[in-house]
Amino acid sequence: MTRPAVVLLSGGLDSTTVLAIAKAEGFSPYALSFDYGQRHRSELQAAAAVASAQDVNRHVVATIDLRVFGGSALTADVSIPKHETVSELSTDEVPITYVPARNTIFLSFALAYAETVEAADIFIGVNALDYSGYPDCRPEYIQAYETMANLATKAGVGGSKLSIHTPLISLTKADIIRRGLELGVDYGLTSSCYDPSPSGRPCGHCDSCLLRLKGFAEAGTPDPLRYQTAA
Question: 2, 19, 81, 165 - which has most CB atoms within 10 Å?
């Protein structure tokens, strides 16, 4: 019998790969996406397409309006930084595309969802190598959250240990893409761009696009998405 697991699914490259990994490991996935006021809402269409293609048990889209706080180029009227090459990206400073406490908020919803479906496992596609330097993507953050989760839930205090799985945490983007292709992931369904066109075409110059393009180049396989312009 397969075990239920909640999988955070943005519709991007990483979370789509994580969903495929969870399935390959024998879990029955319950996908969770968020409409949080993000400017790149086209990712929700991608998440729905991915959830359908990978035949998840259930796909829930939770609505939270993080625009009431702002503080990020993804949720406020702030320009998305654009670059010509990935070498211009820096992890020395947290970029303006960081959404304050986003993963903490998302994991809290995942925790509640997991309790309702009696799942002891949550999957999230955080990565600490080819990433934008977000503080809530680091291993020590995930470990601390898992400890808190097991203290804060009925299941946890009842002796059912919850585990947060981060199968991509130490992989490069190229490694992630190779793993996904091995599992039959269709990356043509995904959306990674922070500033897509109204039709959903990626810009090719934001942090997320540049890291994605770098990954496909290093993996030696073409990105199936059509870009407005590619750096």
Answer: 19
Q: What six digits make up the tokens of 87?
A: 């070498």
* Alpha helices in 169-206, H assignment, sequence order: 173-182
CATH number of 3-219: 3.40.50.620
Q: How far is CA 7 from CA 30, 79, 209, 220, in A?
A: 6, 30, 23, 28
DSSP E strand boundaries for 64-149: 121-123
Look at residue 229 in the predicted model and tell me its pLDDT.
76
Q: Is 11 exposed, middle or buried (0-12, 13-18, 19+ CB in 10 A)?
A: buried
Strand partners, 121: 163
Task: Please give the pLDDT value at position 157.
Answer: 85
Alpha carbon 70 to its chain's center: 20
Segment 76-81 shows an average pLDDT of: 91
Place of tokens 């919850």: 162
Q: pLDDT tens digits, residue range 36-71?
A: 999 888 999 999 999 999 999 999 999 999 999 999
* Token couple for 5: 């697991």
pLDDT score, position 115: 94
Domain segments of the chain as ranges: 3-219
